[in-house]
Predict the structure.
Amino acid sequence: MAYSYSSTNSSPVIAITVGEPAGIGPEISLLAAWELRTEIRPVLIGDAAFLAMLAQDLDKNIRLMGVSQQALRSNGLNGLPGCGKDQITVIDCPLAAHVVAGQLDARNGRSVLQSLDFAIEATQQGWVDAIATAPLQKSTINDAGIAFTGHTEYFAQQTKTQHVVMMLACEASAHLPQPLRVALATTHLPLREVPDAIRFDDLLGTLQIIHHDLEHKFGIAKPRIFVTGLNPHAGENGYLGREEIDVINPVIQHAKSLGLDVRGSFPADTLFQQKYLKDCDCVLAMYHDQGLSVLKFASFGLGVNITLGLPLIRTSVDHGTALDLAKIGTGLADAGSMRVAIKMAAEMVLRQNMAKSVTPNKS
């Protein structure tokens, strides 16, 4: 049986899927992993030969150790040779076609998806502690003949999780006095479909997932969740829409009766101010651009996408594949968001382990 790694004994092991090979994902994954190798144990999942060539272009000091998926299945991570802090382990997930920077190739779509599958397997088996994902191109996978709507939905499907929540977060900065976290009641939907997607049970479940994960993965003892309305002025007592009266506010009241500290609904155009955010641990926005436009304005390139509700920890960058930048050449991409995503995954691992260690044994 494979050795099961426990991060309580050492640095967290973070699997990093390198994403779309023609984009900036492989570059930022290499750079961030190499920079953080003394703080965590990064494990890249991608084509080992391709990453070795790219590493030489980026920094000739980067050292990689390629291993097969079968070797990890047989020996576990700590049973593999050369897994020290002077080099990065790469779990080989071979590509089907030669990579041309900036040019998508559907022949590599299945390999990209296989890297996600192996990352999930590695986490479920205890070989790694969490996953950080570089951006991928949905069209490449769809063009390969596989229906695919995104990382978040795929992780939910593969882990058989019925309800997940997309949350973006950023740390405090010079112009942001405290961390900002924004979760979404709906994700990638056309605006005309959003009102019908805001349902009592779904919204309540979203609030419960946010509350649970803020407690157990972020170490917040009593999470405070502020909820936006859907309509301008939060409906203005029904004059600008009834979603607040009919659904959102009743859900908030019910969540309060269950012991959750949930407040709202607030007009979204005025909620994102320091005088309100200083008393808030997470904002729940009703749709994608309502919440994420604010967060990305405040922190683009340093934000982290987190999937709440999964039976594993998964973080990601706050940007796309940047094919145009990759086409120009290496050395131009900013690895900031990838670096923060990896560090946040490691911090969540440590907080989750601490929460487990203080939970009374009920047996």
Q: What stands out?
A: The chain has two domains: 1-161+312-363, 163-309. The chain has a mean pLDDT of 90. The first helix runs from residue 25 to 36. The two ends are 27 Å apart (CA to CA).
